[in-house]
Amino acid sequence: MNQINRRTLIKLGAFGLAGGYALSQSNVPAKPTFPEPPVLKTKMLKPGVLEAEVAAAPSQVNIAGRKATLLTYGGSFPGPTLRVREGDRVRLNFINRLTEVTNLHLHGLHVSPTVDDPLAMIDPGQSRLYEFTVPRGSAGTYWYHPHIHKEVAPQLFAGLAGAIVVEGPLDATPGVKEAEEHLLVLKDFALVGSRIAPHNPMDWMNGKEGNLVLVNGALRPMLRAQKSTLRLRLLNASNARYYRLQLEGHPLYLIATDGGFVEKPVELSELLLAPGERAEVLVRLSKEGNFKLQALPYDRGSTGMMGMGGMQNMMSAGPSQLETLLTVVAPSKPRPLPLPASFAPLERLDPAKARVTRRVVFSEDMMASRFFINEKAFDAGRVDFTGRLGDLEVWEIENKGDMDHPFHLHTYPFQVLERNGVAEPFRSWKDVVNLKKDDLVRIAVPLRDFGGLSVYHCHIVEHEDRGMMGTLEVGG
Ligand SMILES: [Cu+2]
Fold first, then answer.
1. 16 alpha carbon to ligand 1 midpoint, in Å?
2. How far apart are the CA of 208 and the centre of ligand 1, in A?
3. Contact 163/235 with Cβ under 8 angstroms?
4. Are residues 15 and 159 located together in one domain of the fold?
5. Do 45 and 102 fall into the same domain?
6. Is residue 290 part of a domain?
7. Which tens digit of pLDDT belongs to each residue from 462-471?
8. How far is the CA of 138 from the centre of ligand 1 (A)?
């Protein structure tokens, strides 16, 4: 077992046994530890071939310091992290112990859509084997969640989400490898008693947000840093909540986006994570003290409903409230590592070589709470786009709605070329890109390695469930 796994397991042991408080064999007072998600146990069949099993089941778990009945993977929230290495062959057996149909989506992993089948249906009591090879060059942070059309929103909101961490050679970059690593699954909940609050009609329109804004299922935990440089893997696993992240007194150094490492660290004063997006950042703690990681107010154009004289008027609900997500406690006499100068060059995709340019237009019918792509609601039996394996394509995505919509494409990681005519400031691999009202985003999509039927959709999962999804069939 490598060092990272061992380290994470030690943390898991402490958290799993003591519910957030490290067990101490002496009489030293227990010290709160950061609630790291558990790690999925894998069995090595032979070098480079791993087997693992995870089940979806209703479970009573502790979130925000109270007992709640959630739908979980592996009996925990977040679900256990699948930690694998580039090049690994993975045999993941998934068992459905829910009372409803579900499946798994390996969000962001470049694997065959016949494995990561967005239309797979796994009945209660049934299982399905997800067997795939972890792509080279994909070291980064991914996740898994359900993908049953019309049921994604209630299943995800109820707790079905877990991270996938891909390790690779770039993790050994000086300035990264010595950093103290933590995974932060950002997910909000709303409870009625000890149960998940059901969706109401407004939730289906705006996307459901909850009043409990949690990190790894904990309310405003403390992260007592042992080292002065932190590597935070950030995952927005929320249905609809956006996180405009800022750490008091510290810039964030972006080192990876959805699809892995960028070419060199990018200094950011704040970082916006739309639903489904991931980012990895380095934090350099250079002074002692406590620093809040906050989600700053963000206006995603959601609407509130106001009853007036028997009429229901829609109005903008305005920006979200500021939320404190966690507090970082710097170590004494901190001495952060120098920043890595660079990682590895990313392939440059030349849009002049694209054979096809497609248009994807988001639109809304707010009164009917229906959502469309190119004026059509999702139909699993209809092929919207037909692509050719090996082609580079340019997609022009436009948001003609009033709300933000995060665009997500399965199977094929892409690079953003420009937003509203402005070139992207740096190259990165993405699988989610957010569009504000009236935005026009151009992306380059290489259709590589795998043919089959994939989908693209809004990652406000209520919108996906209410029609904002299309199909892409790639053939040889
Ligand atoms: Cu949307």
1. 36
2. 11
3. yes
4. yes
5. yes
6. yes
7. 999 999 999 9
8. 27
